[in-house]
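Why do we bother with holo predictions? Because pocket geometry can differ from the apo form. Keep that in mind while you read this record for fe (iii) ion.
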Amino acid sequence: MATVVAGIGSSHVPSIGRAYDQKKQNDPAWKPLFDGYEPVKRWLAEEVKADVVILVYNDHGTEFFLDRYPTFALGVADSYRVADEGYGRRPLPDFPGHADLSVHLANQLLADEFDLTLCQEMELDHGFLTAMPLLWSHDDDDWPVKVVPLLVNVIQHPLPSGKRCYKLGQALRRAIESFPEDLRVAVVGTGGLSHQLNGERFGFINEEWDRQWLRDIQDKPEALAELSHQEVMTAAGAEGGEVIMWLVMRGALTPQVREVHQFYYAPMTTGISVLALENT
Amino acid sequence: MATVVAGIGSSHVPSIGRAYDQKKQNDPAWKPLFDGYEPVKRWLAEEVKADVVILVYNDHGTEFFLDRYPTFALGVADSYRVADEGYGRRPLPDFPGHADLSVHLANQLLADEFDLTLCQEMELDHGFLTAMPLLWSHDDDDWPVKVVPLLVNVIQHPLPSGKRCYKLGQALRRAIESFPEDLRVAVVGTGGLSHQLNGERFGFINEEWDRQWLRDIQDKPEALAELSHQEVMTAAGAEGGEVIMWLVMRGALTPQVREVHQFYYAPMTTGISVLALENT
Amino acid sequence: MSEQNDRWGIPGTYVFDLQLSRRGYAINRMCNSLKLEENRAAFVADEEAYMSRYGLDDEQKQAVRERDWLRLTQLGGNLFFFLKLAATVGHGLYQIGAQMRGESYETFMKTRQVPGAV
Amino acid sequence: MSEQNDRWGIPGTYVFDLQLSRRGYAINRMCNSLKLEENRAAFVADEEAYMSRYGLDDEQKQAVRERDWLRLTQLGGNLFFFLKLAATVGHGLYQIGAQMRGESYETFMKTRQVPGAV
Ligand SMILES: [Fe+3]
Ligand SMILES: [Fe+3]
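The structure, written out:
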C-alpha cells in the first residue's frame, strides 16, 4: 500500500529559480531563503525518502491558454519536460513520471467525482519547478524522486473553492492509500503566500496574515477551506489567492499533523514560505 | 428566471449529417429517420420556442486531443464554428453562443463542485452538429436559437460515471433556474444508442436494450445512472457507452417527465433515436 | 471474438482506457496530425519516415503498413483518430469494420438492416 | 487605488474572472503568441499590423502603444500573458508594477524589504 509520508507547502516564485541557477545561495539577499529550505531538504533526504512526489501547482501562461482552461489537470505521462517560459529552459533535468500511480489516481479520483483533465503531455513552468531543487538534490540528468503533476486553475475565476481543493486532497489520500504497491509519497502544495501582481495594489504583502495561515493550515484547515476567494484575495492579494493549492496538500494529510519545519521570508513582492508537515 | 422547457435525447451519427447535406430526406433508406424527427422539430418551433439550447455532446478526435483530455468542458464564447472533420466543413451556419448564460453556468457549476474546463474557443464536430438541423430550422447564416456546448469525455476511460453525469444535469438545472433573465432553455443530450466501432464486435447493436433505455430514462433515470460503464458497454456496445450524456439532459428535468415523442431506427451500425421530454 | 482488453472482459472489445491510450499515444498523435492536408501529403510521400518522426514502435509501424485496423486497435489506436489515417490511405469506416470482424465488406453489409443508409 | 473590478470590490485590484477574460481574450491571445521568437520579431517589425491580426480593439491597441499596463489590465490583459509582450518590448515585472502603482521604479524598490532579491 502506498502512504503519504510528507506534506509540504512551498511558494513558487520565478526569481528563486533564477537565483538558484545563478548560484546565489550565498548572496546576502538570497542566503536566508536557501538556508530556510535546507532543513527540509535534509529531512526529505535522510528520513522521508519519498519515492514519488505529487506536486500541486499552477501554470502561468506557459502551457495552458485561455482557449481551454482546466480546473484540475493531472499528468499521466512517463516524463515531463522543463518548459521555456520565455527566458530559455532552466538547466534542470526533465522529470521522470510515475505513470502507474498517475493512472491509478485518475481512475480513483474520477470515480470519486473529481472531473479531471488528463494530460499525456505537459511541460512544467516555475509553478512546478521552483520548489523541486530546493527540496530534492538532483544531478545533471535525473531526480531522486518520480513526480505526478497536479495542476489547479488559480488564474481565471471561477476557481475551484478552497473547500473543493481540500476535498480533492482528501480524495487524493484515499486514492494513494488504495494503490497496491508500497510507495512512499510526498505531497507538495505550492503557491502563495500573500502577493499581488495586479492593479494599483501591485506589491501588496500581508505578513501577519501569512503567519496566521502557517498556523491555521496545521490546526484549522477546514476553517481556511471555508474562506471565500474574495476574503482570501482581500487579505492576501489577488495572486495570493493561489494558496488554495496548499489545501490540496493539507487534505491529503491526517486531521492532526506535526510541524517539522517552518520558514518565512518576504524580501520583495511575495511572502515566501516553506512548511514541512507529517502525519501523526 | 430561466427555465428548462424541453429535454431531448438524440443520437449523433456522421452519416445523418451527410444525408441531410445531400438532401436525402426522401431517399427510402433515410426518409424514416427524417420523418421521425419532424414532429419534434415542429413541437420545438411551435410550442417550446426555446431561446437557448444547452447541447451535451462529445468530440470525436476533431478538436480535443489526448495530450489534454477534459472530463467536462463548457463553451463560454459568443460563437462557435462548424469544425472540419476531414471531409470539409458542413454547409451549416456557425452557432451564436449565449455567453452570459455560459458565464453564469460556469460560476454556478464550479461553486457546485463540478471541475469544468472552460472554453473560449471551440469548433463543433458531428457530436454537436448532427441533432441541430434536425431539431431547428436554420437559414443560410443563422440559427433560431443560441447555444451553449457542454462536452463530456466518453472516449478515454476513466469516463465520468453515469451518476456524475446525472448529478451534473441536476446542478445544471439549479444553475439555469438561478439565471436572472427570463430565458427558455432546451437541454439536448446526444449520443448512442447502442453501437460499437471497435474490435471483432464492430457493428454490434442491441435494439431490445435501446427500447428499454428509452423507457427507463423517463421513469427510472436513477437506476440507469447506477449502471457501471462495463455494464452499459457490455449491453450497448463500447461506443454505446456514450449514452451517459443523456443522463445529463435527464438530470436537468423534473423527477417526473412526460414523453412528447419517441422515434427509433437502426438501419446500419447505430441504434438511432430521438426522444422528446417535458417537465410535469 | 476471441480477443479483448482483459481489464474489461467484454468479448471482441478493446476498451480505450488510459493504459491503452498511453500504449497508443504515438499512433494517435500521428493520426491526429493528419488533420492537415500538408501532413497527409507528407505521409503519402514517405510513410516510413512519417511513422518514425512520430515515434511509432515496430509493431505499430507494421500494423500501419498492413492497414491492420484490428491490430492497430489492440496496440492503442483509437478509431476516431485513425479514421484520419484511414481516409488518407482510402479506407472507409465500414471497410474497417468488416476487416475487424474478419469479414468481407459485402458479407458485413448483408448483416445490416438498411444497407442503403450509409 | 481608486479603480477596481466592481464585481469584486477589492481596491486597486482587477480580478481576472471570466467576464474580464472574455473582454481581454484578443490581448491575451496575441500575447500568448509571443512565446515564439518568430512572432516576437513580427510584432517588433510591425506592431500595428500584428495587433490588427489578433483583433485588438482601439482601446486595447492604444494601451499597447502606450505600454500602459494598468489600462491593459483593466481591458482584460492578464499579467502572465502580457509579460511576454513586456519582455518583447523590454519591460520587466517590477517596472510594470511601479507603473501600475503610479510610482517610479526607484520609489517602488524603496518600499521593498530586501530589494537585492530580484
Ligand atoms: Fe502561481
Ligand atoms: Fe459520439
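The CA atoms of residues 97 and 108 of chain D lie 8 Å apart.
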